[in-house]
Amino acid sequence: xxxxxxAALMLDSFFEYFALTALGAMTFIVSLQVLTRKxxxxxxxxxxxxxxxLLVWFAFMGIAIGFREKLHLAMDSLTQYFPxxxxxALDKIISLTIFAFGLYLLKNGWDFTVLMNESTLPATKLPxxxxxxxxxxxGLMICSYSLLELLGIDTxxxxxxxxxxxxxx
Length: 169
Fold this sequence. Notes:
Blueprint: H1 2-40, H2 47-68, H3 76-79, H4 84-115, H5 129-132, H6 134-150
Helix pairs in contact: 1-2, 2-6, 4-6
């Protein structure tokens, strides 16, 4: 189990680094776009399209990372009164539901990516599918995180920043 967790965290590190790089690149491109528009009355023709592409990728990667860190909505105010066994069963149901959502993203995201492969983005001439291929990737990540959760492997990497008590679940 330790090797599985180690492999999952290595792959996860790549995705987290990619998401952070996308955020940094997006910030840089938008700043550059504003600067060139105000100072030189010039805008790079590709800047808006690439920014939107990076925003979509960052957002979907953020969704998967949010599931990894257990940042999804919880009803602790109600479930704190349930017996421990009921909460364990609810946790399994939640993990299975998250897994189903990941499968949904994986299947429908792939179908949509294939569908959009025929069209191209106007400025960069990249296939439109490059925008949507992040959906099945995110679905796979979510499925992986929920499967590891069902196996009892905690993949959270930033548990110190979570509310007190939430990390004990």
